[in-house]
Design a protein that fits this description.
Serine Threonine Protein Phosphatase 5, Tetratricopeptide repeat; mainly alpha; single chain; globular
Length: about 100
């Protein structure tokens, strides 16, 4: 909902250095199809492996398969179950073995 996204926007303004606030706000941006904003937010915490799967999601929704594959692979390599599933799904979809 609009109110739900607003809460995350407030949190990221109150705690601009918080990885959790940034990730939550970026996730809300992805759900709202505001992909450029999500990528901009996540790039601030790109060093955090927990951000890599969401970056992959944002890039695949933008149509950038190459970047999505890179981020899903990084997420999978860091132990992310979601990253691994997304990587496998994307590889299957584009027939990469």
């Amino acid at each position: 909902s609009k109110e739900f996204r607003e809460v995350f926007d407030i949190a990221v303004r109150l705690y601009p250095e918080s990885d959790i606030a940034i990730m939550n706000s970026a996730a809300a941006d992805i759900e709202g199809k505001n992909l450029d904003a999500a990528i901009d937010r996540l790039n601030k915490i790109e060093r955090n492996p927990k951000a890599w799967n969401n970056l992959g999601v944002a890039y695949i929704l933008k149509g950038n398969t190459e970047k999505a594959l890179d981020y899903f692979a990084k997420a999978a390599d860091s132990g992310s179950i979601d990253g691994k599933k997304n990587l496998e799904t994307l590889q299957k979809a584009i027939n990469i073995k």
